[in-house]
Automatic annotation (TrEMBL):
The keyword Chloroplast does not apply. SUPFAM superfamilies: NAD(P)-binding Rossmann-fold domains (SSF51735). GO terms for molecular function: oxidoreductase activity. This is Short-chain dehydrogenase. Pfam families: adh_short. It comes from the Bacteria. Belongs to the short-chain dehydrogenases/reductases (SDR) family. InterPro entries: NAD(P)-bd_dom_sf, Sc_DH/Rdtase_CS, SDR_fam. The keyword Oxidoreductase applies. Keywords: Oxidoreductase.
Amino acid sequence: MRELTGKVAVITGAGSGIGRGLAQAFAAAGMRLVLADIDGASAEETCALLQLPPSRAIPAQVDVAQLTDVERLADVAYGQFGAVDVLCNNAGVVPWQRAGDADRLVWEWVVAVNIWGVINGIETFLPRMRAQGTPGHIVNTASIAGVLPSRVSSLYSTTKFAVVGLSETLREELKETGIGVSVLCPGAVRTRIRETSGQNHPAGMDAAAAVPNRTGLGAAAGALEPEKVAAMVLDAIRDNRLYIFTEPALRPLVDERWRLMME
Ligand code: NAD
């Protein structure tokens, strides 16, 4: 998709961090936007920041883990704009526990948001995007923790490896359709993920549970600003590239993994 002006993008997790950065970069590229977040007020805030009329950008309160919410999001997007060209399954959470010590509710929550959230987006939007018969693109946000072992949490890595695997294979499956797939694998990006994850804890968990900063996720010195990441995503959509690594040193490791798989 070389030309993005006027194209319609749906972004989940658009109320904060990388999702907000994507919204700003896409708006600057002349795209029309549906900005979804479980925190509806934060989605509205992103929308207000863009200073665009409803013909260009609308907010939506959506829990990506709930299929009915995502179906409603699709109805809103198609109702408002009549098409969806770019889908960014970006919403995600980071857990505060590791395998072996984790409450089952925390496992279920992380899997529901980080894996089912992406599946719900794909299963809901892809058939409609295919039916449009126009070029499209899906960007799934994974992590470096979806490519290499990380210090964040085994729960988090489980979900992000799933998103990488899904994205790699979906791209192959969609090869003939004109719909590209990219997977965003950031390292540390300056966002509020540890706080927002603490706020969006599953029912019954301690609301004050803090996500420990084991890796600097979201805050490390040298962390990238979301705008930088968003610019990389725009380039990857235009060039139809699969991997979006914010740390270029990772590329050879992934190439080696593919080589071993294909042998
Ligand atoms: P963030 O917390 O700033 O933004 C995430 C947004 O997702 C928040 O606004 C939150 O309210 C929303 N959200 C949470 N659960 C949701 C749900 N069930 N439905 C809809 N929205 C929901 O965090 P971020 O760092 O911008 O994270 C965006 C993505 O980037 C995540 O998938 C995360 O795993 C990934 N990531 C972040 C980093 C980093 O260092 N920040 C690194 C690698 C990957």
